[in-house]
Write a structure and sequence with these properties.
Layout lengths: L1 H10 L3 H22 L3 H19 L3 H30 L16
Length: 107
């Protein structure tokens, strides 16, 4: 029973339809890769090289990475937070009234 639940969760309620979608997606992606002259090995190598380079760019040690991420957070917050406050002030308190799920009806 548990195996059936797991396969249903992964494949979905209609396995045949899921398989057809996967075949079509595989053909489209394969054609795209062939058009650009990229093999699957080159693709995955590029993905791993990208993340390796990203980690190298962030820093070599965990402490250096966390320090850099915190620095980026502060730089971003210096722009995002004032902008957010300005948008909230300009829109006013009633701007989000329609988006609330706790709307009371007035008869």
């Amino acid at each position: 029973m548990a195996d059936n639940d797991l396969s249903r969760r992964i494949i979905g309620p209609q396995p045949r339809r899921t398989m057809i979608k996967l075949v079509i997606a595989s053909i489209v992606v394969g054609a795209f890769l062939a058009f650009w002259g990229v093999s699957p090995r080159e693709f995955w190598s590029g993905v791993f090289d990208f993340f390796r380079g990203l980690l190298g760019w962030l820093g070599d040690s965990v402490g250096e990475i966390l320090t850099n991420l915190f620095t980026y957070f502060l730089f971003g917050a210096a722009i995002v937070i004032p902008f957010w406050i300005i948008v909230r002030v300009v829109n006013g308190p009633g701007a989000r009234r329609g988006a609330s799920t706790d709307v009371t009806r007035r008869d």
